[in-house]
Write a structure and sequence with these properties.
Chain lengths: ~325, ~300, ~325
């Protein structure tokens, strides 16, 4: 069952020079019970995409498409309505989670303020839940009575994740939550997310990252974005082991991994840099860096083509029939 | 790069409005005194042999009144653009000279505060270690002493005070927060990678300071000066208002003080209190506009072209 | 291969405030060597002291104690003039943040100008220009595309390449590369890293590659040093350290690296270990987090011992 259905979503940034087409006609579906990974390099629109689901503020503009979340179109919700579903139905873990909590309030007060806004009336009940959850992530229940500054970085990370998920959101968005973390802390975060899923505290997760190798560890399905467009989407196994789009393939081949050393086997990156999204070409946006580009690539936009079981990629090399 | 900044600045409406206000008042202070026959206290000076007589007009005349001053042997027709005070002194003359003095206080006081703050902040930030500790201790001590109280004490100890002395006193008490801000800027710049790379490129410390660090804080210093300029004017007006301004001469604050002292508002002599107050308010607003305009110029992220 | 750089008992204590301040032993009694033409990766998490070591070698900060010998000469005894005229001609660096590495007020050319004014004084202006263009071409940039541009007009990858080209101009004997790819995208990262390898292969330059990313360290380096909270816990031939990790910390790190095609087992959540006082700990600094720690570990600091040829570890378990 689909938790979130995004259809042909277009989110642009309005600038003095024109529209920056950060998300340009993206469609996908997040199913109930899955971790959906979104990967791409900086500027590919992954962050814009998920933030537009939560809060659109200028210069971000919605230029078309829908995002159906449990039957409601997130793009047309009023600010009050979207506030109402925050934390209870749709929640986000901020990128710099370690510093996201108000330092002048105790954890339990932060949580109570939040619960109050969503119509909770029994403070005891909420605090009891908080303490339960803190124990669940192996933090002392006493943390509820502490200020964020009294916690170490790792503890704060856990506390923030507890706060973001306390009201059992159906869909949790994690936007680059691990990119500023050490590998050992990153591992903890992944364990926590996995646990939240297993315990049914959240039903689905959208995990956004630039790190494909990390996605490989947690996501059930992944979507690869390039310059505001979907280039490939499918089950993680399929996409990682059997990438169809040249971009995905080159990207995966450029990743260092254990056993590969410069001395023995030189890896190659992708030459060139992403195009400007101000006036992107009509055709494929990767063609400037693609070693296999055809004559029609600059002018004709490739459609997503089925290349395997629930595995799609948008490339002219993969044939014509469109999805 | 410079001309590009200027171009952006001239496209910024806030900046333009602010500059227009400031330029207007600066010209007013410069040229205004030339078109009045009265002296800075609002008396009409009449030369009689080798003596100088200071004549007054009728008290409490509203703006644009005409009056006649009687000097030995002649009658002089005068116009009081802003009326007269309760002593028959011309208010237009007081205001233009007062504005001139306030601007001088702003320039000297703000200049000193900026210079001292810049030097101390820069030294502390760049040298670090003990220099930093000691300079910042002094700065923090200065910060916690209430400036107004200090000004009152210093001012009260001096029997004769001129505008220049007042500016220096204000300048020497207003620098601490500038020093702290400049220190923070320097500290962050000093550890920026491009400074390290300049060092690795064999540049001497002096070259690094002049060529790499200082140019990056000039925009900031400029804005600090504008703030200090306004701050010094307001501080002077505060001092004047409580009667600790220059013992000779006039300022916008002194006019206001006199107006309050002689119940100008209660008695309906609005022209005594409103013009100086309005000028202060407008001028400070102008400075504020320039400052936020410049912030948008220097900080590309705030720009909305 | 002979020794180029030798670091002996290097310690850096940061103190804060001169009344009632606290101190942090950012680097605590660290010794290692870099051979000629060798790429050494210095791997550690944030707070491990790896960046501090780079800065100490560059004399951007002063150590509290210890020696740094460059070709047998103690650089801590060198005067500022000696550093400028001699040392920095042979030791150069590229830093983490490409955007902070350029003075935003000047075009990127300035990076080359500064260095050639100091060190290429015997070369004519035109020759210098050609040298710069040549260096840029060598690292895969089109000189006409980047020269004359301001830093904010270029991408992080381009800027980082320019900085490598800048170092290339001097052909230094040692290059300190501090997290140089951590801010770049995955698709450009590996090519910048390859430049370090090419650089070494062509000019015999030694490289100290400071990184938090084990996979990158493994890919490029001959020797690996693993640091934890200011101390070296393990070092040796890269192959040995990665294939046969000895220290419990190294093992834990390796387990945490997401590597393609290695499935993770979800082990459940483990409690966060307190480690606030770790910088003043007498014993092994990893002890509070170590699953195998004994009483001894908290009391006495283990010394680095050579477990096998070219493979050192500091852990009581291996005495």
């Amino acid at each position: 069952m689909a938790m979130l259905t995004v259809e042909d979503l277009k989110i642009y940034y309005s600038t003095p020079l024109g529209h920056v087409k950060a998300v340009d006609g993206v469609s996908f579906e997040v199913k109930e019970g899955e971790v959906f990974g979104i990967a791409g390099e900086s500027g590919c629109g992954k962050s814009t995409l998920v933030h537009s689901l939560i809060l659109r503020k200028p210069p971000m503009v919605h230029m078309g498409g829908r995002a159906l979340f449990k039957g409601k179109d997130l793009m047309t919700l009023s600010p009050e309505e979207s506030k109402k579903i925050r934390y209870t139905e749709l929640s986000i873990i901020p990128q710099y989670a370690m510093n996201a909590l108000n330092p002048t309030k105790k954890i339990k007060d932060i949580v109570w303020d939040l619960a109050k806004e969503h119509g909770y009336t029994d403070r005891e009940e909420v605090e009891k839940l908080l303490r339960e959850r803190l124990s669940m992530v192996k933090l002392s229940p006493k943390v509820a009575d502490m200020y964020p500054v009294e916690l170490s970085g790792g503890m704060r990370q856990r506390a923030t994740m507890v706060v973001s998920t306390l009201l059992n959101p159906d869909l949790l968005i994690a936007d680059e939550v691990t990119s500023a973390l050490d590998v050992t802390t990153q591992r903890v975060v992944i364990e926590l997310l996995h646990h939240f899923m297993k315990e049914g505290i959240v039903k689905s997760i959208i995990f956004v990252t630039h790190d494909l190798a990390l996605l490989d560890k947690i996501a059930d399905r992944v979507m690869i974005l390039y310059a505001g467009k979907v280039v490939e989407i499918g089950s993680t196994e399929e996409v990682i082991n059997n990438p169809a789009h040249p971009y995905t393939r080159l990207l995966i081949n450029s990743l260092p991994r254990m056993g590969v050393q410069y001395k023995k086997q030189k890896l190659k990156g992708i030459p060139g840099y992403p195009i400007s999204l101000l006036n992107p070409p009509k055709g494929c946006r990767f063609y400037t860096r693609c070693p296999y580009a055809l004559d029609k690539c600059p002018s004709e936009e490739p459609k997503l083509v089925k290349v395997g079981n629930e595995h799609y990629a948008a490339c002219h090399l993969l044939g014509g029939e469109s999805q | 790069m410079k001309s590009e900044k200027l171009r952006i600045a001239l496209k910024n409406r806030k900046f333009k409005v602010g500059v227009a206000i400031i330029v207007f008042f600066a010209l007013f202070a410069l040229i205004g005194p030339l078109v009045t026959p009265f002296d800075q206290l609002g008396y009409y000076p009449v030369k009689l042999h080798k003596m100088l007589l200071l004549k007054r007009s009728t008290p409490n005349l509203p703006p644009m009144s005409h009056d006649v001053i009687y000097a030995p042997g002649r009658e002089i027709n005068v116009t009081h653009y802003l009326g007269t005070d309760s002593f028959g002194r011309d208010l237009y003359a007081q205001v233009v000279y007062g504005l001139r003095n306030s601007l001088i206080v702003g320039l000297i006081g703000g200049g000193i505060a900026t210079f001292v703050g810049l030097t101390i902040g820069f030294l502390a930030g760049y040298r670090g270690g003990w220099t930093d500790e000691i300079l910042m201790m002094i700065t923090n001590i200065m910060l916690v002493i209430p400036t107004m109280a200090l000004l009152i004490i210093i001012a009260a100890y001096m029997s004769t005070r001129g505008v220049i002395i007042e500016s220096i006193i204000i300048g020497l008490t207003a620098w601490p927060w500038t020093a702290r801000a400049i220190r923070a800027q320097t500290l962050s710049l000093k550890n920026r990678e491009f400074v390290h790379l300049a060092k690795l490129a064999g540049l001497s410390d002096l070259k690094i300071i002049i060529g790499e660090i200082l140019p990056n804080i000039t925009s900031y210093v400029f804005m600090v000066f504008i703030l200090q300029f306004g701050g010094a004017i307001l501080a002077a007006i505060g001092l004047d208002f409580i009667g600790l301004g220059p013992t000779r001469g006039i300022s916008l604050g002194i006019i206001l003080q006199n107006a309050v002292l002689w119940n100008a508002i209660n008695l309906g002599y609005w022209w005594w209190a409103i013009p100086p107050g309005l000028i202060i308010a407008l001028f400070i607003t102008g400075l504020y506009f320039v400052n936020i305009g410049l912030e948008e110029v220097f900080n590309p992220r705030l720009r909305r072209e | 291969m002979s020794e180029l750089l030798k670091v002996e008992h290097l310690t850096k204590i940061f103190t804060s405030g001169f009344i009632g301040g606290f101190e942090i032993r950012a680097v605590d009694d660290v010794s290692f060597t870099i051979k000629k033409g060798e790429i050494v990766s210095l791997v550690g998490e944030s707070g491990s002291g790896k960046t501090t070591i780079g800065k100490l070698i560059l004399r951007l900060i002063q150590p509290t104690s210890g020696r740094i010998l460059f070709e047998g000469k103690d650089i801590l005894q060198m005067s500022k003039k000696e550093l400028r005229e001699n040392y920095y001609r042979q030791v150069q660096a590229v830093f983490q943040d490409p955007f902070a590495s350029f003075n935003p007020l000047h075009p990127v050319d300035r990076a080359f100008d500064l260095i050639s004014e100091s060190y290429l004084t015997d070369v004519s202006r035109d020759e210098r220009k050609e040298l710069v263009r040549d260096a840029l071409r060598q690292i895969g940039l089109n000189p006409d595309e980047v020269l004359g541009k301001f830093p904010h007009q270029l991408s992080g990858g381009q800027l980082q390449r320019i900085l490598i080209a800048r170092a290339l101009l001097l052909k230094p004997k040692l290059l300190i590369a501090d997290e140089i790819v951590s801010m770049l995208d995955a698709s450009t990262r590996i090519d910048v890293l390859n430049l370090l390898g090419d650089f070494r292969d062509k000019y015999g330059t030694s490289v100290l590659f400071v990184t938090h990313d084990l996979a990158l360290g493994y890919y490029i380096s001959d020797t690996t040093i693993i640091m934890y909270r200011g101390t070296i816990v393990e070092m040796g031939d890269t192959e040995k350290v990665f294939q046969n990790p000895l220290h419990p910390y190294t093992r834990m790190l390796l387990e945490s690296v997401p590597d393609l095609n290695v499935k993770w087992e979800f082990k459940g959540i483990e409690p966060e270990k307190e480690e606030g006082t770790v910088y003043s700990l007498q014993g092994c600094r990893y002890a509070p987090r170590c699953p195998r720690a004994t009483r001894l570990c908290f009391v006495r600091r283990p010394e680095l011992i050579e477990f096998e040829k070219n493979h050192w570890v500091a852990c009581h378990f291996y005495y």
